[in-house]
Design a protein that fits this description.
Blueprint (H helix, E strand, L loop, with lengths): L1 H24 L3 H34 L2 H29 L2 H26 L4 H35 L2 H8 L1
Helix pairs in contact: 2-5, 3-4
C-alpha cells in the first residue's frame, strides 16, 4: 500500500514541476510589451524610410532635373543634421538604440549624397536602384527585429536562472 501512495505523490510532484516549468516558459506581459514596442519602433522607422525613398522615386519623374538634384543635396544635409542630433541625444541619454538609429540615418544620408551622382550616371535605372534600396532596408529591419526579439527573450530567460544565488548561498 505504501508503494502506491509514494508513486502517486511522485506523479503529483512531477506534474506540479512540469506545470511550473510551463509557466516559466511563457513570456510575461512586460516582456511581450517590450518586444511589441521594439517591433513597433522598428516598423515605424522603416516605414518612414520607405516613404522617404518612395518620395525620392516619385520626385525623379515629376521634378525637373536641376531642382531634383538640389532637393537631394538639401535632403542629405538635413539627414546629416538629424544624424548629429541623434548622436548627441544618444550620448546625453546613454541609449544604445538611439545610437543605432543614428548610424541608420547616417547610412541613409550618405546614400542620399551618392544619389546626386547616381542620378546623372544611371538615370535609366535610377528607380530600380531606389527600389532595391527599399528591399535592402526591409531585409535589414526584418533581421534586426528578429535579433532584438531573441535578445529580449534571452535576457528574460537568463533572469530566471537562479544558479548565481545558489552558488552565493553555498559559499
Amino acid at each position: 500500500m505504501k508503494k502506491k501512495s509514494t508513486k502517486i505523490s511522485e506523479n503529483e510532484n512531477i506534474e506540479k514541476l512540469s506545470k511550473v516549468i510551463e509557466e516559466k516558459k511563457k513570456l510575461p506581459k512586460e516582456v511581450k510589451g517590450k518586444i511589441s514596442s521594439k517591433i513597433f519602433e522598428n516598423v515605424l522607422f522603416v516605414a518612414i524610410i520607405i516613404i522617404y525613398l518612395g518620395a525620392l522615386n516619385l520626385g525623379m519623374t515629376n521634378i525637373p532635373t536641376e531642382n531634383y538634384i538640389f532637393d537631394l543635396k538639401v535632403f542629405s544635409i538635413m539627414l546629416l543634421v538629424g544624424t548629429i542630433i541623434t548622436f548627441e541625444l544618444a550620448y546625453k541619454k546613454d541609449k544604445s538604440n538611439l545610437w543605432v538609429h543614428g548610424v541608420e540615418i547616417l547610412v541613409l544620408a550618405v546614400f542620399t549624397t551618392y544619389l546626386v551622382n547616381l542620378y546623372s550616371m544611371y538615370y535609366n535605372t535610377f528607380g530600380t536602384l531606389i527600389f532595391s534600396t527599399i528591399g535592402l532596408y526591409l531585409i535589414y529591419y526584418f533581421v534586426k527585429i528578429l535579433i532584438e526579439r531573441r535578445k529580449i527573450i534571452k535576457q528574460y530567460k537568463k533572469s530566471l536562472v537562479d544558479i548565481g544565488e545558489i552558488v552565493k548561498k553555498k559559499s
